[in-house]
């Protein structure tokens, strides 16, 4: 398209949301190849391609420098880069695990509004987070276009506050990318703007491992810079472009000039016609649709040299309180089965910071919206967290922490009634045992119900152990007085050893 042409947005394509949201799009760099390089670090400096059938589905950036590109035939890639190392990428399981970890991190730490797109991309609506932050003059990473505003752009300059919001969004995006790098090990690119289509488009402006922010007054420039075909617009795939072509629309210009009636005839659906018509102008009111409930919920704070246990515990308590508030705000009624404490220790000798996490099974919490929920949950969690802290920081006099974090994981639905407490507990027990990181609840109980696995039992908090024992005692009494017997789902039914 002609870059100097200013696109006039027709009245029925004007956004109903304006620039009110702040959206970050995150895309992992050469995703499959990065997963392979993480597992096999000596591949990092070599040109690497990931092969499915006779196609290189992706390749690392060393290979890209040699001209190899995504979705190239293996034979062609080999010609361009004779030293190309090829790994088979047909089993997607490992890629899925890494993909989940990224989405999980974003959901638990940044926003509940995270929408996955394919395996390596996420849209995150950070509007709420941005509102809560103080204004900033700094943009993190690149800014799309020139910061010097031309006359036309000055005319387009927006005074709704979106410049400030996307600036804060760029800082959030940088924090997201740092967290993904540090905790999952992947580098990513990010795009920041006020809607999904623009955030995705601008994110690919600087690759790899970079981020770009688009201000509203540069949106027209970005759309005008796109290659001519309709496929340049994210969301318009092969099927849709074929459909458009059959209706005589092949270029982005054609699409911009097509009326809603024409598009409705092509799609047979007025909603889709309107969405596509708007996309062609960089207008996108579609929401970030959360892709499932978060698997964890956590907060972390960088701290300035915490080096005494008292300070650390005060910080952990404050973080836990905030985390409980977030849990209450989650409003889906789920309770966590596991609590995880993270510390980042500064090692004076190596001059490096190192993260470490430990987790424990959660004690039974009071009803989520009860008055005492916060205080009594805190009282139950703190001894566990102190125990985890002591395990990770055994020398009380000699440590230096630069970050502390508390997270809830292993969420379960918890309904009322006895049967449900056990369904709440079961995955906790399994998880605590599998991880081997759960705190062993010290137990003085020598005798256990016959169907209960001792390892599982030991991994549970004291109250739950007591409940199991009480339930067992109760059952024995019931059995010895048959008149009282009634069929009831009990906690121990769920803890039977596997047959
Ligand atoms: N993928 C695939 N087949 C396709 C497209 C992609 O198997 N037709 C896989 C391989 C990629 C992953 O999906 O690693 C993510 O796709 P991207 O388009 O985001 O490509 P990359 O992440 O590999 O590279 P980039 O750095 O350009 O994002
Ligand atoms: Mg990618
Ligand atoms: Mg991608």
From TrEMBL:
Keywords: Transferase. One of its GO terms (biological process) is translesion synthesis. InterPro entries: DNA/RNA_pol_sf, DNA_pol_Y-fam_lit_finger_sf, DNA_pol_Y-fam_little_finger, HUWE1/Rev1_UBM, Rev_trsase/Diguanyl_cyclase, UmuC. Pfam families: IMS, IMS_C, UBM. One of its GO terms (molecular function) is damaged DNA binding. It comes from the Eukaryota. PROSITE patterns: UMUC. Residues 23-237 form the UmuC domain. This is UmuC domain-containing protein. It comes from Cloeon dipterum.
